[in-house]
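re: ur msg from earlier - yeah i can do the flavin-adenine dinucleotide complex, just paste it... oh wait u already did. ok heres what im feeding in:
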Amino acid sequence: MTGEPMSWSGWGDPAKARELPEPVRALLRDLLGVRAPGTPAASLEQVVLPAVALAEPLLGALAKVVGDGHVLTGHEDRVRHTRGKSTPDLLRMRAGDGSDAPDAVVLPGSHEEVAELLRLCSRERVAVVPFGGGTSVVGGLAASREGFAGVIALDLGRLDRLLFVDEESMVAGFEPGVRAPDAERLLAGRGLTLGHFPQSFEYATLGGFAAARSSGQASAGYGRFDDVVVGLTLATPSGTLELGRAPKSAAGPDLRQLVLGSEGAFGVITSLRLRVRRAPAERRYEGWRFASFAEGSAAVRALAQEGPLPTVLRLSDETETMIGLAKPDEIGTGQADASRASDAAAGSGGAGGSGCLLIAGFEGARVGSRHAAASAVLARMGGEPLGPGPGESWEHGRFSAPYLRDSLLAAGATVETLETAGFWANLPRLYDAVRLALLGALGSPLVMCHISHVYETGASLYFTVVTPQDADPVAQWDRAKAAVNAAIVEAGGTITHHHGVGRDHLDAYASELGPVGAGILRAVKAELDPAGILNPGALIPPPAS
Ligand SMILES: Cc1cc2nc3c(=O)[nH]c(=O)nc-3n(C[C@H](O)[C@H](O)[C@H](O)COP(=O)(O)OP(=O)(O)OC[C@H]3O[C@@H](n4cnc5c(N)ncnc54)[C@H](O)[C@@H]3O)c2cc1C
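and the outut:
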């Protein structure tokens, strides 16, 4: 495994933490009314955890399966496996609230050990939360204790091997705990890539991508992660499910789709067979300007429907364009931020005068001809070419933006992201509904949006919100999130395009599924996990009372 352990209370590699420049602090204060929180963030030692509920004989039985040294009950190990990395998760951690900590962290070393652990935990009524990179932003890792003897985090980090590469079929086999950068490194030696680059790339795992139906920044060219998975193995308390003996099949419903997005509630993914592509020899990234988000959206739709699609396609709305989130590596450079932020805050998330930035990235085969054809479409739709500068800047800073969140939280601003998707004809309504819900719930937040996952029939909308923290920022965000979830359901969008359901989206997901759909999920859960030990409280809507 490469890389530093992730910050226990924030995002990413602690060495890459970024300070907010003073002009931005001043603007947050003067224009959004942001004030530094009264109490400093808790230290690791100050985080309060519940006492370990699992009795010694049970801890011993777990250790018998995975070996001594692979059952951890130390303070830091439990803290590091408490919840995920949503903003409420980080706010709770900064407040020293470790109440959702697992009793133990268990690290299996093989499929057989996972299967044995699931049998043991079913027998002893121990809840099991599969844990990949720990980057869930939907409450996918918070342990529910009610009715259980205890909770374990099943950390898949020891299952970190490349299993095989079949270059004839262009399929590679991996264990689930391989982190995305390690997967790319393992494939690079053979000139191959998965092409999956979500913003959580540095820490998320392949098993987590499959379990949460992740979508990466290059989804226009490489597809979503569910397009990449051709086969997988699922260990369940009821036995092992092997799926994917051919790329496509007419033998009934495709059960792979039942496992993709199952968020650890049906079983533990212990291996994956993934489609690989030749690593691109050529890359070309550039920027375009559109007069408005509506004009830019029409251009993006034209590319999705007529082709050719670039590998990366991202359109920021007016506010995101002004604030510069499309060029995150430039944020933090001082005065330039200040004037951009001032413009954006003055508009309180409204339309500004600088138009909208579109980033188009071309990788792989026929870059020249695809670029020429796509450029003709973008020019016809009113786009103004800005050259390679904005595109290269975006590519350079593509994983940087989350590092700003910790500095913003420390300064007293809540910053969080949320997303949805819909058909093209409904997208403007969905955009307005989410913005109005946020403005209604938070007063005058900064609301930014971009489109970065497109299909012939529709697209996702990805929002970033900045607002001053009140005395209880978790409750404040919970209220805003509830308002947005209701607005998305009402406006006919899906509650999530790629973050998943977890616990945070459960109510809205139940509305989206309807009673018959929810009943199907409960029936599958009852078949695969009769004792209900797997990630209880996540994904599966409870029966209506
Ligand atoms: C800063 C940031 C940026 C992000 N950017 C993106 C993005 O661009 N695109 C995107 O799609 N998502 C993004 N996410 C969300 C998150 O990274 C994804 O959901 C990712 O797929 C989670 O992978 P993970 O390995 O961290 O899984 P975890 O967070 O550990 O787990 C996620 C869920 O999957 C289950 N699970 C994990 N491994 C297994 C397994 N082997 N078997 C069964 N269940 C399992 C867990 O129980 C949990 O329910 C972002 C998150 C953050 C914090």
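cool cool. The pocket of flavin-adenine dinucleotide is lined by residues 11, 84-85, 129-137, 140-141, 156, 176, 198-200, 204-205, 207-209, 211-212, 214-215, 263-264, 268-269, 402, 498-500, 535, 538 (CB under 6 Å). ping me if u need the other ligands too
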